[in-house]
Amino acid sequence: MKSLFYTILIIGGAFLAYDYFGAPPGKKLVFKSLNPPAKPKVVTVKPSEEEKPEVKEAAPEPVKPVAVEKPVEMAPVPTPAPASSGPKFEPIEALTGNWLKIPASAFPREVKLVQDAMFKMSVGSSKIAAGGKAYALAADNGVLTLAPTASSPARAQLPIEGTDLKAQLNEAYEKWKITRAEELKAIAANKVQNQPAASASGAGPSSSEVDAGGKPVRDSTSGYPLLIASMKSGQITEIKPENVISWQDPQPTVIQGKPGWAVKVGCNVKTVFGLQPTEAQALVLNGRVVGWYYTGSGEEVP
Q1: How far apart are CA 17 and CA 13, in angstroms?
Q2: Is this model's pTM higher than 0.70 or not?
Q3: Burial of 208 (0-12, 13-18, 19+ CB in 10 A)
Q4: 1 pLDDT higher than 80
């Protein structure tokens, strides 16, 4: 009996000793005073969302169609070529369509053969060896039609490279450019000298030359007296009235920021191959011709 009592006493003492010394804070059962005070529980209260008033989007107003006036098409005004120390000449390849469209005015001409040529006639054929000469009568797509003499009915065909035609035309073109440059220089000097007198004595356009809006009007020959007068006055010398092929209708355009008119003219002009067809444009402002330009290159007509 005593042994049971001591056993209980030892166990109780061990429990008390553990509770006092070994139990972690907050877990003591007998010595509760040694436990730390309990922390107050913090409760997070989610604030209630304020009720937002419902906003209804207003229906978009229908877009009203806007009437847009169709702009008046204006004739393009050519940009004058920049001034340089001399006139601008196109390469001969441009004038001949890369040697596929040589003007008929370049023929007939004697050429030297660099290939043998076989000439056919109704009674037979004959050959002229390379190094000989023949007459080039025409060219078509880079192929020459040749004759042994200017009056012979015999014919042969060779590519342009089979003769010295390219070399001949290149040499003639270079000489023509020198002559032409001097001619244009003289024309420009004459214009500067006579321009003040012409502008001082020039009268305003008449009703037979332009209408109330300053638009050039045609005469009984379908030409434009205003443009013809410009040519005859020396404003340009490259185009003569007798060399005009066609007159087109005036087209509205803007010149120097003001409304004016552009009139295209088909005409023949001087080239290394003689007179050749081209197109120029006269610009008319306030009933007066203020300039002439080639429509292709934009260069001013001399």
Answers
A1: 6
A2: no
A3: exposed
A4: no
Task: Give the number of other CB atoms < 10 A from CB of residue 262.
Answer: 24
Whole-angstrom distance, CA of residue 212 vs CA of residue 261: 13
d(CA 209, CA 250): 13
Coil, helix or strand at residue 161:
helix
Burial category of 245 from C-beta neighbours within 10 Å (exposed 0-12, middle 13-18, buried 19 and up)? exposed
pLDDT, tens only, 196-243: 544 444 556 777 899 998 999 999 999 999 999 999 988 998 899 999
| Local structure of 42: helix, strand or coil | coil
Give the helix ranges, DSSP H, for 18-164: 92-95
Tens digit of each residue's pLDDT (9 = 90 or more) over 240-267 = 999 999 999 999 999 999 999 999 999 9
Of 205, 245, 251, which Cα lies nearest the Cα of 222? 245
CB 177 within 8 A of CB 89: yes
What is the rounded distance in angstroms from the CA atom of residue 212 to the CA atom of residue 237?
A: 29
How many whole angstroms separate alpha carbon 182 and alpha carbon 175? 11
Burial of residue 270 (CB within 10 Å: 0-12, 13-18, 19+) is middle
Q: Is 278 helix (H, G, I), strand (E, B) or coil?
A: strand
Alpha helix ranges (H) inside the chain: 2-17, 92-95, 165-201, 225-232
205 exposed, middle or buried (CB, 10 Å; 0-12, 13-18, 19+)? buried
